[in-house]
Amino acid sequence: MPAQLIDGKAIAADVRQEVADEVAALKERTGIVPTLAVVLVGDNPASQTYVGAKGKACIDAGMGSITHRLPATATQEEVETLVRELNADSAVNGILVQLPLPKGLNERAVLDLISLNKDVDGFHPMNIGELVMKGRTPQFIPCTPAGCIELLKRSGIAIAGADAVVVGRSNIVGIPVAALLNNADATVTICHSRTKDLPGKVKQADIVVAAIGRPEFVKGDWLKPGCAVIDVGINAVPDATKKSGQRLVGDVAFDEACGAAGYITPVPGGVGPMTIAMLLKNTVRAFKLQHGLE
Ligand code: NDP
To answer: Which of 43, 67, 169, 202 makes a 20 to 30 Å CA pair with 161?
Structure first.
């Protein structure tokens, strides 16, 4: 039987509706709405698209959206000054600095500067530290990893007791998603570029999360029959049949995997839409924390 599709677009739409309902209730109660400030430095076309989508999602949910655009020539001091101003602005509940920053800017110094209670991307070392420590609760969970877990939960896939393999160990996806699976009582193996016998490791998994950044890298015959596959990868590959000359594929060979897995996320339309939905959720959480409503 072919794998059941995990429809990230539909699940993200549900989350966004829940956020919109909560925003309306908060507005009723406080007279104000949660507001996200996004900082975009430079003119990277992909970043511009992402920032536009985030702003629109905020507006659609009834939230406030502020976008600060700085030129690619902005200095470290200018970016840091803006982040400090946003930290101090009580009308701003969440701050997101769109990555990557132009070359020459110190990303880490900028991210470390964001107030912990406004770090809706969840990338502050304190947030990640609390995520991996037993018995601690981070203020915010990074959006893409949170989206992966939400997809599993809302698809009725059992995490507790499952064997999970995460391929990739980046700070923004692999490590936090492994921590979340561990916190939800899966037994987690983290794989990376130096892992021996990757296909053999993946074969053990009831849940596979692929966050590698290599097109169609995980093959169908690596998968345990019936497993759940969450494909985080977004890779553009040449495709002469498309007007743009390219199409997007994940880190998993989708067609092959459909023949083996029990559940699978498509690319696009899987994890991607969840990232923005979880960002909205985090911004509402920030608002509630800042207003003593949490
Ligand atoms: P990184 O490049 O930061 O990390 C990639 C990871 O994959 C590393 O840990 C690396 O191992 C591992 N890796 C690379 N090659 C191999 C290999 N041959 N075998 C096993 N492991 C390997 O990527 P990100 O985590 O930032 O992103 C991963 C993917 O997810 C990308 O396609 C990205 O576009 C996508 N993404 C999607 C998002 C969404 O909203 N859907 C959000 C963020 C990312 P090592 O540590 O040893 O180098």
So the answer is: 169
